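Title: Prediction job returns without error message
Component: structure pipeline
Severity: low
Priority: P3
Assignee: unassigned

Description:
Job completed but the reporter wants confirmation the result is attached to the right record. Sequence as submitted:
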Amino acid sequence: MEEVSLSSEQVLSGEGNETEKERDGEESEFVVQNGLTQGRKEFVAPAVGMEFESYDDAYNYYNCYAKEMGFRVRVKNSWFKRNSREKYGAVLCCSSQGFKRIKDVNRLRKETRTGCPAMIRMRLVDSKRWRVLEVTLEHNHLLGAKIYKSMKKMGSGTKRKLQSNSDAEVRTIKLYRALVIDAGGNFSLNSNAKEIRNFSDHPNQLNLKKGDTQAIYNYLCRMQLTNPNFFYLMDLNDEGCLRNVFWIDARSRAACGYFSDVIYFDNTYLANKYEIPLVALVGVNHHGQSVLLGCSLLAGETTESYVWLFKAWVTCMSGRTPQTIITDRCTALQNAIAEVFPRSHHRFGLSNIMKKVPEKLGGLRNYDAIRKALIKAVYESLKVIEFESAWGFMIQRFAVSDHEWLRSLFEDRARWAPVYLKDTQFAGVSCSQPGETLNPFFDRYVHKQTPLKEFLDKYELALQKKHKEEALADIESRNSGPNLKTRCFFELQLSKVYTREIFKKFQFEVEEMYSCFSTTQLHIDGPIIIFLVKERVLGEGNRREIRDFEVLFNRAAAEVRCICSCFNFYGYLCRHALCVLNFNGVEEIPSKYILSRWKKDYKRLYVPDHVSNNVDGTDRVQWFNQLYRSALQIVEEGAISLEHYKIALQAFDESLNRVHNVEEKPEQLKI
């Protein structure tokens, strides 16, 4: 594609030529006072790497910025494709750029141009967005309203244009929030007022300190330049103050394609009023490690903020939603998930609930006894009738029927008590056993008073550590076989398939088959046989107890289901189900009980739902996303050691040479 740069002092005409017009009539004619006013909004200065959905969005943004600074804008250059006449490049500059042409010097109108260098150069990139490539911010003249007094004399046509520009500004503020940041809403520019705001006092804007807003903006711009496929959105309130921010890096976006089936929504820092109002979307990878699926800073725990965040996440996920989403008990969250994820299973984190027991029940007279009764009801009940009976006994025995927290907890029992959740897939995020907890993703990196600027630095360190741990686990799982501890074929079968960490958990179930000393047939209902498996377990005071577990088995359908529901909670069969399979002479675990998400080569073989096997021959964005996702796996493992790095680099060089050697056909070069 031939490119022709046209100066604003030249007007070329004729078919087939690229044309540029000086848009004096489209200058931003806004009156701006010198200085900053207290509490006003400020458009962030243009920076290399900023992107816009369209040329008009970019032009409107620069107009709004010019209004705030006190100058007008005109188009210096434009570039168009010869055939389609589609614009693909432009230079916007200050109206004082350049000088008058010689033939215009003797006119009575006073010279206003000063050769001002202020400008931005932008171009349409492969993602079909307009990216800023070059920026000059300095002006060589005074800025402000005085130089625009001639604007008072205007015709009706100009007034209509001003109104149109004003409407465009409003659209820019409301629709393209990623490009405007509040500079006065988080602190007073002209006073010594307290910088930190109260969450309850300002629920409609972020609780930030001076300089935090610019730190966020600098971080996002840097990531957009250095991290391909980085995605972020900003949300402003009607006053132009920063309200919510969402971002997700390229690795996390790739992880969403594999591990977004079950999500833990971590709002620990926001709910506990940390210095940074951080929330995180967290998943579990094929090693059972936590993976980040997105981050956000929210103004408060409101339904509106949560709805905005979830919609932002769905946008970057191309509309895909999780099967299960686990959160804290929160009405605002419950309402937001019902609106954005109506088909997802919304469950409350059991570990979060149990952590609050000392706080909520600690003041009761028989606290220790109540706590023991609660734990027994929650973790040891295998049937609904057992749970409700144990709960009722606890309420009656300790006379706590009027306790509000216990009452509301029982009303919500279907969302958190394990006995009600046996049909929900948790992929190990259920915490259905005592002692299991859902730790914050940034645990050890963020404390109560961690400032935002420090967190943004720690954020990258935390992710690098997590990515390295995953890459090392991948290598270990592929290159070293686990030690077998039994002669059971189930153990041998999955040792060849599962990642090392997941296999260890399954291996423990195989070992514990020997604690199950009796498997007997209870009932036959057509093809379904109900077995009773007896197991010796450690009870209170380390005393040995015998517990009964019912297991349903259907040989024809190759189905086995235990009442403990280990498979749905953790993603692998329990000792009781394995005993029934072994009792019935089944030598291999049915394939439906070998989850792909736990396999060693899962990320190599699995194609995310939103990636079609039939690649669109014209969708370059889809090409880029798929190529990036594939290359990212090589990058992650190539960074493990110098030897890995050299091999990965060699592979890239060889691939690039092969691509260069492909004979380019004419139709492949069409844009």
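Comment from assignee: result matches the submitted record. Residues 1-42, 146-202, 665-671 have pLDDT under 50 and may be disordered.
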